[in-house]
Write a sequence for this structure.
Protein backbone atom coordinates (compact mmCIF):
# COMPACT_ATOMS: atom_id res chain seq x y z
CA UNK A 1 0.00 0.00 0.00
CA UNK A 2 1.43 3.37 -1.02
CA UNK A 3 1.18 6.34 1.29
CA UNK A 4 1.97 9.98 0.41
CA UNK A 5 5.03 9.79 2.68
CA UNK A 6 6.55 6.64 1.19
CA UNK A 7 9.51 6.72 -1.26
CA UNK A 8 7.47 4.74 -3.80
CA UNK A 9 4.68 7.33 -3.68
CA UNK A 10 7.28 10.08 -4.16
CA UNK A 11 8.45 8.30 -7.31
CA UNK A 12 4.83 7.88 -8.40
CA UNK A 13 4.05 11.58 -7.87
CA UNK A 14 7.23 12.76 -9.60
CA UNK A 15 7.57 10.34 -12.51
CA UNK A 16 4.25 8.59 -13.21
CA UNK A 17 1.42 10.91 -12.15
CA UNK A 18 2.40 13.81 -14.49
CA UNK A 19 2.14 11.50 -17.53
CA UNK A 20 -1.21 10.16 -16.35
CA UNK A 21 -2.59 13.66 -15.75
CA UNK A 22 -1.29 14.83 -19.13
CA UNK A 23 -3.47 12.17 -20.77
CA UNK A 24 -6.45 12.19 -18.40
CA UNK A 25 -6.84 15.97 -18.58
CA UNK A 26 -6.88 15.99 -22.39
CA UNK A 27 -10.35 14.58 -22.99
CA UNK A 28 -12.68 16.42 -25.35
CA UNK A 29 -14.93 17.49 -22.47
CA UNK A 30 -12.01 19.01 -20.58
CA UNK A 31 -10.62 20.65 -23.71
CA UNK A 32 -14.03 22.26 -24.21
CA UNK A 33 -13.95 23.56 -20.62
CA UNK A 34 -10.47 25.01 -21.12
CA UNK A 35 -11.54 26.76 -24.34
CA UNK A 36 -14.63 28.21 -22.70
CA UNK A 37 -12.67 29.46 -19.67
CA UNK A 38 -9.83 31.03 -21.64
CA UNK A 39 -11.74 32.64 -24.50
CA UNK A 40 -12.17 36.06 -22.77
CA UNK A 41 -8.70 36.41 -21.18
CA UNK A 42 -5.98 38.81 -22.32
CA UNK A 43 -2.81 40.69 -21.45
CA UNK A 44 -0.20 39.22 -19.13
CA UNK A 45 -1.67 36.00 -17.71
CA UNK A 46 -0.55 34.19 -14.58
CA UNK A 47 -1.55 30.53 -14.84
CA UNK A 48 -1.70 28.66 -11.56
CA UNK A 49 -1.08 24.94 -12.04
CA UNK A 50 0.52 25.22 -15.47
CA UNK A 51 1.30 21.50 -15.57
CA UNK A 52 2.19 20.23 -19.04
CA UNK A 53 0.87 23.34 -20.77
CA UNK A 54 -2.51 21.90 -21.74
CA UNK A 55 -4.09 25.37 -21.73
CA UNK A 56 -1.60 26.91 -24.17
CA UNK A 57 -3.42 26.01 -27.42
CA UNK A 58 -6.60 27.69 -26.15
CA UNK A 59 -5.30 31.13 -25.23
CA UNK A 60 -6.70 33.85 -27.53
CA UNK A 61 -4.69 36.40 -29.50
CA UNK A 62 -5.31 39.05 -26.82
CA UNK A 63 -2.82 37.27 -24.53
CA UNK A 64 0.64 38.87 -24.63
CA UNK A 65 2.44 36.57 -22.17
CA UNK A 66 1.77 33.58 -19.93
CA UNK A 67 3.58 33.10 -16.63
CA UNK A 68 3.19 29.53 -15.39
CA UNK A 69 3.49 28.16 -11.86
CA UNK A 70 3.61 24.44 -11.15
CA UNK A 71 5.42 22.13 -8.69
CA UNK A 72 6.24 19.36 -11.20
CA UNK A 73 9.54 19.37 -13.09
CA UNK A 74 8.34 16.36 -15.10
CA UNK A 75 5.22 18.24 -16.22
CA UNK A 76 7.42 21.17 -17.27
CA UNK A 77 9.39 18.83 -19.53
CA UNK A 78 6.15 17.54 -21.04
CA UNK A 79 5.17 21.17 -21.75
CA UNK A 80 8.21 21.98 -23.91
CA UNK A 81 6.60 21.29 -27.28
CA UNK A 82 3.50 23.29 -26.39
CA UNK A 83 5.66 26.17 -25.16
CA UNK A 84 7.66 26.14 -28.39
CA UNK A 85 4.45 26.22 -30.44
CA UNK A 86 2.93 29.15 -28.49
CA UNK A 87 2.59 32.47 -30.32
CA UNK A 88 3.39 34.48 -27.16
CA UNK A 89 6.20 34.31 -24.58
CA UNK A 90 5.82 31.65 -21.87
CA UNK A 91 7.78 31.93 -18.64
CA UNK A 92 7.80 29.24 -15.95
CA UNK A 93 8.51 30.52 -12.45
CA UNK A 94 8.62 28.98 -9.02
CA UNK A 95 7.01 25.87 -7.69
CA UNK A 96 4.46 27.15 -5.20
CA UNK A 97 1.26 29.10 -5.69
CA UNK A 98 1.44 30.02 -2.01
CA UNK A 99 4.63 32.05 -2.55
CA UNK A 100 4.73 33.79 -5.93
CA UNK A 101 7.99 35.53 -6.94
CA UNK A 102 6.05 38.26 -8.73
CA UNK A 103 5.68 41.95 -7.97
CA UNK A 104 2.48 43.37 -6.55
CA UNK A 105 -0.18 44.36 -9.09
CA UNK A 106 1.82 43.09 -12.06
CA UNK A 107 -0.49 40.73 -14.00
CA UNK A 108 -3.68 41.46 -15.92
CA UNK A 109 -5.40 38.10 -15.58
CA UNK A 110 -5.09 34.96 -13.47
CA UNK A 111 -6.18 31.54 -14.75
CA UNK A 112 -6.80 28.44 -12.66
CA UNK A 113 -8.10 25.30 -14.36
CA UNK A 114 -8.54 22.15 -12.28
CA UNK A 115 -5.93 23.38 -9.79
CA UNK A 116 -7.53 24.77 -6.61
CA UNK A 117 -8.53 21.19 -5.78
CA UNK A 118 -4.88 20.26 -5.24
CA UNK A 119 -3.00 23.29 -3.85
CA UNK A 120 -2.05 22.39 -0.25
CA UNK A 121 -2.96 25.82 1.15
CA UNK A 122 -5.55 27.38 -1.18
CA UNK A 123 -6.21 30.32 1.17
CA UNK A 124 -2.56 31.42 0.98
CA UNK A 125 -2.50 30.87 -2.77
CA UNK A 126 -5.59 33.06 -3.28
CA UNK A 127 -4.06 35.81 -1.13
CA UNK A 128 -0.99 35.72 -3.35
CA UNK A 129 -3.13 35.82 -6.49
CA UNK A 130 -4.95 38.87 -5.19
CA UNK A 131 -1.63 40.54 -4.35
CA UNK A 132 -0.15 40.19 -7.85
CA UNK A 133 -3.34 41.00 -9.79
CA UNK A 134 -3.69 44.54 -11.13
CA UNK A 135 -6.66 46.63 -9.92
CA UNK A 136 -9.65 45.61 -12.01
CA UNK A 137 -7.95 42.38 -13.09
CA UNK A 138 -9.87 39.11 -13.16
CA UNK A 139 -9.46 35.53 -12.00
CA UNK A 140 -10.91 33.07 -14.54
CA UNK A 141 -11.42 29.56 -13.22
CA UNK A 142 -12.96 26.22 -13.99
CA UNK A 143 -12.57 23.74 -11.15
CA UNK A 144 -14.14 20.57 -9.81
CA UNK A 145 -15.27 20.48 -6.20
CA UNK A 146 -17.98 19.79 -3.66
CA UNK A 147 -21.34 19.10 -5.29
CA UNK A 148 -24.55 20.83 -4.30
CA UNK A 149 -26.36 17.47 -4.29
CA UNK A 150 -26.06 16.10 -0.70
CA UNK A 151 -25.94 12.51 -1.93
CA UNK A 152 -23.05 13.22 -4.29
CA UNK A 153 -21.30 15.28 -1.60
CA UNK A 154 -21.44 12.32 0.82
CA UNK A 155 -19.70 10.12 -1.74
CA UNK A 156 -17.11 12.82 -2.30
CA UNK A 157 -16.38 12.84 1.42
CA UNK A 158 -16.07 9.05 1.54
CA UNK A 159 -13.73 8.88 -1.46
CA UNK A 160 -11.63 11.95 -0.75
CA UNK A 161 -8.77 10.15 0.99
CA UNK A 162 -8.36 7.69 -1.88
CA UNK A 163 -8.52 10.56 -4.39
CA UNK A 164 -5.77 12.43 -2.55
CA UNK A 165 -3.51 9.38 -2.53
CA UNK A 166 -3.96 8.45 -6.19
CA UNK A 167 -4.04 11.94 -7.70
CA UNK A 168 -1.28 13.89 -6.00
CA UNK A 169 -3.31 15.53 -3.24
CA UNK A 170 -6.40 16.35 -5.32
CA UNK A 171 -9.54 16.90 -3.24
CA UNK A 172 -13.06 16.05 -4.35
CA UNK A 173 -14.86 18.07 -1.69
CA UNK A 174 -13.51 21.62 -1.69
CA UNK A 175 -16.19 24.36 -1.90
CA UNK A 176 -14.41 26.30 -4.63
CA UNK A 177 -16.59 29.41 -4.77
CA UNK A 178 -16.44 29.82 -0.99
CA UNK A 179 -12.65 29.56 -1.10
CA UNK A 180 -12.48 32.24 -3.80
CA UNK A 181 -14.71 34.57 -1.81
CA UNK A 182 -12.74 34.00 1.40
CA UNK A 183 -9.67 35.02 -0.62
CA UNK A 184 -11.34 38.46 -0.90
CA UNK A 185 -12.32 38.09 -4.53
CA UNK A 186 -15.75 39.21 -5.70
CA UNK A 187 -17.35 36.59 -7.92
CA UNK A 188 -18.92 38.23 -10.98
CA UNK A 189 -20.11 35.08 -12.72
CA UNK A 190 -20.54 31.52 -11.47
CA UNK A 191 -22.01 28.45 -13.16
CA UNK A 192 -22.36 24.86 -11.96
CA UNK A 193 -22.49 21.78 -14.13
CA UNK A 194 -21.29 18.19 -14.28
CA UNK A 195 -18.37 17.41 -16.56
CA UNK A 196 -19.52 15.30 -19.48
CA UNK A 197 -18.37 11.70 -19.23
CA UNK A 198 -17.11 11.98 -15.64
CA UNK A 199 -18.65 10.32 -12.59
CA UNK A 200 -20.65 12.84 -10.60
CA UNK A 201 -18.44 12.59 -7.51
CA UNK A 202 -15.42 13.72 -9.57
CA UNK A 203 -17.07 16.02 -12.08
CA UNK A 204 -19.06 18.74 -10.30
CA UNK A 205 -17.81 21.95 -11.94
CA UNK A 206 -17.43 25.52 -10.80
CA UNK A 207 -17.05 27.85 -13.81
CA UNK A 208 -16.45 31.43 -12.86
CA UNK A 209 -14.93 34.87 -13.13
CA UNK A 210 -13.91 36.86 -10.05
CA UNK A 211 -12.47 40.33 -9.60
Amino acid sequence: CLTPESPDMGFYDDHILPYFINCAMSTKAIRDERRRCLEPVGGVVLEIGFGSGLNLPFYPSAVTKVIGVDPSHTAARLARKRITAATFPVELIGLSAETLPIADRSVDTIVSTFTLCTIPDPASALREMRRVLKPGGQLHFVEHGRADDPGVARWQQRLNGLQQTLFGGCNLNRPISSLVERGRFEIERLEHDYLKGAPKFAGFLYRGVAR
Summary: Residues 50 and 184 are 23 Å apart (CA to CA). The two ends are 43 Å apart (CA to CA).
